[in-house]
């Protein structure tokens, strides 16, 4: 496979490993960007971006990064905390009065950011089109009864996180969360990253498709079994209510909306640039970064049915858990996206890592493709 772009010769082994991903005939297109100490050492891409395999992946190809988007929303919220406009431990209802309904008056921004609020899904089934109606979704969440009692563990909120954090940002900033992410993160750092994509950018978005045949690891199979057998389970509802969540990634209305849990569009460069901006202090004061990357929740995840470990809006490394390590140092923090994209920082080695792919794998947390690249990167450092 012809790999395009730049790589420092010290990291040739990483480039070779990236090229070898395409030995799998199902692989379509991908990009990798790594910064070490703020310097770009790899910025490479290969493969195809379109549905029919006719269009090459280009330097400016962007893709839906799914949950890699979550830390961007968290950083905006934490910047607002730093400015005194939000408080981590104030009740959400202080900023969003309707949210106090159904026993949620004690839930704080900290609970939302660390997936402890008990709101990973909606009980009541909503129509497919509700996904694109911000007001419908935030009204439903404000009225929602938590799935468990505060203080009794955590459960990842794959999509509701975007409306919960996004509505708080919107109420304080008076603009959509995607606009806040653009103004506070993407524009200042020069990142090609968008939550709410302009129609004029659609032609450079990679088409996303699922790989066939690979059933994934035990965690993936456990979650799939629940989703196939129990439509009312919290895990099932969190991914399928509204039912359009899992099927919308290539649709124009999905690309246009500002849903900062899952519909960020960007490239590997934008992910690496974001984490470099966190490591060098351009995005958050050191105390707030320490708070973001401190362990807030760890253990069996009520939604994902596997062990997860969270800071505030970021997933923390679990070096001893095969499906939950980024593949570099134990202090790494970041976020995987559904199907394989991944962005993270390793503060010990001053590494910022971004990997983007358009052939979705079946894994629940980290994708083995990204992990393999990170492990080989570690050997080069």
TrEMBL record:
For the Beta-lactamase-related domain, which residue ranges apply?
19-372
Q: Which domain of life is it from?
A: Bacteria
Record-given protein name = CubicO group peptidase (Beta-lactamase class C family)
């Amino acid at each position: 496979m012809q790999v395009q772009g730049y790589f420092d010769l010290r990291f040739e082994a990483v480039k070779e490993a990236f090229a070898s991903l395409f030995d799998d005939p199902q692989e379509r297109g991908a990009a990798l960007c790594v910064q070490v100490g703020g310097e770009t050492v790899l910025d490479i891409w290969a493969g195809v971006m379109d549905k029919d395999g006719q269009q090459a992946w280009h330097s400016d190809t962007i893709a839906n990064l799914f949950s890699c988007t979550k830390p961007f929303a968290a950083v905006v919220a934490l910047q607002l905390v730093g400015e005194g406009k939000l408080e981590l431990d104030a009740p959400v209802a202080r900023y969003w009065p309707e949210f106090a309904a159904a026993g949620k008056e004690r839930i704080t921004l900290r609970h939302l950011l660390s997936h402890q609020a008990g709101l990973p899904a909606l009980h009541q089934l909503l129509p497919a089109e509700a996904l694109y109606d911000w007001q419908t979704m935030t009204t439903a969440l404000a009225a929602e009864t938590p799935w468990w009692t505060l203080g009794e563990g955590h459960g990842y909120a794959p999509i509701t996180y975007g409306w919960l954090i996004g509505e708080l940002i919107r109420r304080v900033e008076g603009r959509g969360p995607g606009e806040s992410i653009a103004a506070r993160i993407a524009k200042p750092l020069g990142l090609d990253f968008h939550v709410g994509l302009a129609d004029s950018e659609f032609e450079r978005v990679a088409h996303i498709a699922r790989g066939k045949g690979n059933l994934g690891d035990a965690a993936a199979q456990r979650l799939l079994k629940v989703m196939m057998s129990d439509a009312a389970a919290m895990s099932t509802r969190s991914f399928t209510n509204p039912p359009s969540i899992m099927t919308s990634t290539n649709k124009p209305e999905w690309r246009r909306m500002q849903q900062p849990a899952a519909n960020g569009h960007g490239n590997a460069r934008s992910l690496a640039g974001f984490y470099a901006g966190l490591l060098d202090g351009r995005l958050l004061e050191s105390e707030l970064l320490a708070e973001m990357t401190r362990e807030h929740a760890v253990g069996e995840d009520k939604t994902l049915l596997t062990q997860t470990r969270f800071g505030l809006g970021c997933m923390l490394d679990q070096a001893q858990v095969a499906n939950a390590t980024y593949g570099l140092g134990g202090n790494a923090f970041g976020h995987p996206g559904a199907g394989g994209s991944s962005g993270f920082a390793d503060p010990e080695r001053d590494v910022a890592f971004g990997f983007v792919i358009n052939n979705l794998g079946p894994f629940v947390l980290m994708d083995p493709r990204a992990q393999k690249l990170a492990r080989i990167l570690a050997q080069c450092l």
